[in-house]
Amino acid sequence: MWNRLPGVWICVAFAIASVLFALLATNAYYTSLVVWVLTNAVLASALRFVLQIGELNIATAAFFGIGAYTTAITAVLLGWPFWLTLLLAPLVAGALSALFGWVTLRTKGPYFLLVSFAVTEVVRLVYTQTNAIGGNSGLVGMFPPMAIEAYYPALAVALLAATLFALYGVERSDLGRLFKAIENNDAIPRSVGLNVVFLKVLCVVIAGSAVGLAGGLHAYANNVIAPSDFTFFVAILALAYVKIGGEGHALGPVLGAALLTLVGQWVAGISAWENIFYGAVIVVTLLVFPGGLVGLAARARGLVTRSAR
Amino acid sequence: MELFVQLLANTLQIGAVYVLFALGLTLIFGVMKIVNFAHGGFFTAAALIVTSVVPFATVELGAPLWAGYLLAAIVAIVVVLCLGALVYGIGFQHVLKDLNGSFILSIGLLLILNGAYLAIYGGAPRTVPQVLPGTVSIFGAALTAQRLALVIVAAVVTGGLYLLIERTRLGLALRAVAMDQEAAMLQGMPFKRVALYGFLIGAALAACAGVLMAPINAVTPVSGDEFLIKAFIIIIIGGLGSVPGAIIGGLFIALIESVGGYFFDPSTATLATFILVIAFLLVRPQGILGNVE
């Protein structure tokens, strides 16, 4: 898989550069920005991962929150060790995604979309109603241990980048091909004896674990989490990243997340214009270049090779 | 008995707005096969317009309150219809029957609309003076005159929509397109025009709901979004695209909310509805009156 794809090596180099940047940069604002960009990239990639089976999973936001809350609860309330709290985030998020998938993947299309949306709201309501985990104000005080604290951004970036490569690896594997086959027509994989529901649940679990890990890392990076950080809006922004970057390639959501997160930095704060900005970007991209950045690049390359001939 | 009647009255007044809102959403889904996240935007636009036209008409023009409110209602519905036509022309007609594409488009529109409302009106809640003061007592249950009027108007509008869909040529076309778009086109029905009419009727229903709610609840730029979440649950329960399903679902959710809100507290009731929906899906994924795809 590796030697056939020179682009992968460029991405690996880029990931190493980001880790080094997070390790060496002294400005805390820039290091946290790099972590934030990669967190968004994982959210967007996980959303696109489930789009492979043709479903739009708004509950991506819920599993991000579940990961963050798992880490925060075990770290702050139970005082468990750092690595264990971080390991539990993807495990718990993955287990709950399995339950979620098993219940909801009987439906598809608009029903699945609306149910995943409802689940996200339920989970958020549960946080606000549970006083033991801070209710509306959430949890405070997740700090990485002293020995790691200085390297934490680099660690987070490395783990998030590894997650992105893992998602890409699954997409390129035979399993990824099965997911695509389900999207095209799920009667055909079923007719050759594959358990389609199991495969769909598996797809949701892989994506759920990935965002769960991102949530756990986010809890330590941010030190504070609250229910309002995990509304369905998180998934909607992730969808915007996917759309801008382009669904056609695994790189799309990463590019979209990087671009919009960085540009979003200077529209942030003025909430009315922030909304209008994101909304306009989504509408214009969808109507004018539906393939996103990746689609544009592919088209440009097509033009170049054609004219070279 | 008194408690029972009171809870029933509460159910009807909450349910009336839910039904109007969900009917528009389900109609748009049925005809165009799109999930319109921007539907709350129509509701909010109408309610906000009422909050600015009523003071203008009563203070600047010196009109009596009821006349100002009627004027505001007409202005609000006309503006929302124009907004709907604009949104359809620019965006939705290019993504008909594309579930993910139209969903994303509607989210983009929702963000733009919410941002615009916030920029124009600010975030502070806006109110309209009571149009019909006083309380009415029915079988011992107290009901403000305004809310009673809301229930009656909503029932009339719902009845009107039912007649439109069941008895007119346009209704026949809407049902035919919802059932099988290609077969309808083969019979010579102009799909895009029928879809536009369906979309505008849906937008007008949301505007009606907004106009009716403005004097009852304070209006903010995100008022519509709260109803949107409820309306989604209603149409999942009722069956996507089903008009009677939206009516049954709307009243059902309102019943759970008023009974649950009385015996427990409102957020427990909301939580209960969500859990109910998920349990419901296990048994009947296509909703009460939905068709299996």
UniProtKB/TrEMBL annotation, chain A:
GO MF annotation, one: branched-chain amino acid transmembrane transporter activity
Keyword Transmembrane helix: yes
Mode of membrane association: Multi-pass membrane protein
Places the protein is found: Cell membrane
Gene Ontology cellular component terms for the protein in this record: plasma membrane
InterPro entries registered for this protein in UniProt: ABC_transp_permease (IPR001851), LivM-like (IPR043428)
Pfam families reported for this sequence: BPD_transp_2
The entry's keywords: Cell membrane, Membrane, Transmembrane, Transmembrane helix
Residue ranges of the TM segments: 7-27, 33-51, 58-80, 86-105, 112-130, 150-170, 191-214, 220-242, 249-270, 276-298
Highest taxon in the source lineage: Bacteria
CDD domains per UniProt: TM_PBP1_LivM_like
This protein's name: Branched-chain amino acid transport system permease protein
Organism this protein belongs to: Salipiger aestuarii
TrEMBL record, chain B:
CDD domains: TM_PBP1_LivH_like
Keywords for the protein's UniProt record, in alphabetical order: Amino-acid transport, Cell membrane, Membrane, Transmembrane, Transmembrane helix, Transport
A cellular component annotation (GO) from this entry: plasma membrane
Topology in the lipid bilayer: Multi-pass membrane protein
Segments traversing the membrane: 12-30, 37-57, 69-91, 103-124, 144-165, 194-216, 228-255, 262-283
One GO biological process term: amino acid transport
GO molecular function: transmembrane transporter activity
Subcellular location: Cell membrane
UniProt xrefs under InterPro entries: ABC_transp_permease, BCAA_transport_permease
Claim: Ribosomal protein is one of the keywords in the record: no
Similarity remark: Belongs to the binding-protein-dependent transport system permease family. LivHM subfamily.
Name of the protein in its database record: Amino acid/amide ABC transporter membrane protein 1 (HAAT family)
Source organism of the structure: Salipiger aestuarii
